[in-house]
Specification:
By secondary structure, the protein is of the alpha/beta class. The chain is built from eight helices and 14 strands. The protein starts with a helix and ends with a strand.
């Protein structure tokens, strides 16, 4: 009788241990990314086709996911050490997810500039001139306030510009909100698109948009598949293309588990 009772106690104790072990195994590993320096060599998540994936590939072992929700799920589950994302999109995403936070120090800050083929010096000059006009007439400020300050602004094309036959092709990725993304109507939209349209309006030509993976934007211009590109990172190859004046600045940040 005593032996049987002893066995029952042992079995109950074993079940408790197994349950505790199972509960512990469901917990994600503790966060190991406390500063941007810690990102190097880690398993890093990024949105598929976004500029952030280029940084992830440079710094560690990159994993791509189609949505921010999937990124957060795998980060919280421990499949990812961290996530790299453009700051505006990251701030909006993290606001609705518990258990994650953005590191206070940005990972990478840079200017947003058009990539132009090196043999097309005339186009580069015209784009820079158009950006100057948009800066002076308040269009750039209005568009930036629209996308980053929530202010109302409607771009109105100039009506005194001579139109010319032909068009300019812009290469963008569509996983880079708020700069370029697919809107609710299924159209490519965003700050980059509106700025490019305004530049083409001043030049008097049609704008045509072609979607590329973020890793292909520079080569799209280099090979002549596109006249311009936005959304590329400076680390991707300034030696291959010329760059315009900056129309804005942005930064990529790191999302980690709390």
């Amino acid at each position: 009788m005593g032996f049987t009772r002893y066995r029952i106690i042992l079995m109950a104790f074993a079940v408790v241990v197994l349950l505790l072990a199972s509960a512990c195994s469901d917990r994600p590993p503790p966060n190991t990314v406390h500063t941007t320096v810690d990102v190097t060599g880690k398993i890093i998540g990024a949105l598929y086709g976004s500029p952030s994936i280029v940084l992830a590939e440079e710094l560690g072992f990159a994993r791509e996911y189609p949505t921010g929700a999937e990124l957060m799920f795998h980060l919280k589950a421990g499949a990812l050490d961290c996530v790299i994302m453009e700051n505006t999109a990251a701030t909006e995403l993290v606001a609705g997810v518990s258990g994650v936070r953005i590191l206070s120090e940005p990972l990478y800050e840079y200017d947003i500039q058009f990539a132009v083929a090196k043999e097309n010096a005339r186009l580069l000059k015209e784009v820079n001139s158009a950006l100057t006009d948009l800066r002076e007439n308040g269009t750039l400020r209005g568009l930036l306030n629209k996308y980053f300050a929530g202010k109302s602004f409607t771009y109105v094309p100039p009506d005194n510009v001579e139109t010319h036959p032909g068009y300019l092709t812009l290469a963008v990725s569509t996983d880079n909100p708020p700069y370029s993304y697919i809107n609710e109507d299924g159209e490519i939209s965003g700050l980059d698109i509106e700025v490019s349209q305004a530049v083409c309006d001043i030049l008097g030509v049609e704008l045509r948009i072609v979607e590329f993976d973020a890793r292909e934007l520079v080569t799209a211009v280099w090979f002549g598949w596109a006249d311009l590109a936005l959304g590329w990172l400076p680390i991707e190859g300034e030696e291959l293309v010329d760059i315009s004046e900056a129309y804005a600045s942005t930064m990529h940040v790191v999302i980690v588990r709390r």
